[in-house]
Amino acid sequence: MEEEGSAGRIRRAEVADAAALAELAARIFTDTFAADTRPDDLAEFLARSYGVRQQTAELADPGVVTLVADVADVADAADGGGRLAAYAQVRRREPPACVKGEEPVELWRFYVDRRWHGSGLAHRLMAAVEDVALDLGGRTLWLSVWERNPRAIRFYEKHGFRDMGAEPFWVGSDCQTDRILAAEIARPAP
Questions:
Q1: Is 59 strand, coil or helix?
Q2: Residue 65: domain span
Q3: 8 A C-beta contact, residue 133 and residue 142
Q4: Which of 28, 78, 112, 152 could be disulfide-bonded to 86 (CB atoms 3.0-4.6 Å)?
Q5: 36-88: per-residue pLDDT in tens?
């Protein structure tokens, strides 16, 4: 799967992308959540979730599909910020009890670098995520999103996701509340 667009191409990540993905993931998570997270909790979460070792393991895991938006060939990438602009991870995992749809597949992570907000990249990445979920046999796509992230919630709602419930999400020692959202997915009729 490769899809070209004005914000680079969306492709499946490879183990060779681990260092760039770890940097992108930690930077976006920090940009998004640092203002509302104690520094020690943030540092613990980043160390546990977004190191090169962790990303290498996730990229090598056949049960996790990682998509990246690669902007190496786009002129805007020359102003810094690396060659990856966004990423998403899709996996099969037992959903929370509030997810009732058939054949659930989890959208585990979905992050777009702030520089690319409003470019259409997030919409292209979501379309690629849905294709991956369908390829995995999914008919329901579910995710968790921090309840205090209204921009993300609005984006997901635009893509057909509906609130199903809540579950705790730990950032270090800070127990936060994530909303569980789900959407039915299907291939367009020919």
A1: helix
A2: 2-184
A3: no
A4: 112
A5: 899 999 999 999 999 999 999 999 999 999 999 998 655 444 444 458 999 99
Q: Model-level pTM?
A: 0.89
Structural domain count of the chain: 1
- Evaluate whether 141 touches 130 at the Cβ level (below 8 Å): yes
What pLDDT, in 10s, does the model give residues 13-37?
Answer: 999 999 999 999 999 999 999 988 9
CA distance 72 to 70: 6
Calculate the alpha carbon distances from 25 to 18, 87, 139 in Å: 10, 8, 27
Task: Give the model confidence (pLDDT) of 143-172 as tens digits.
Answer: 999 999 999 999 999 999 999 999 999 899
Residue 114 lies in a domain: yes
CA–CA gap between residue 28 and residue 110 (Å, rounded): 10
Q: How far apart are CA 161 and CA 181, in angstroms?
A: 6
Question: What is the CATH classification number for the domain harbouring 8?
Answer: 3.40.630.30
Residue 111 and residue 28 in contact, taking contact as beta carbons nearer than 8 Å: yes
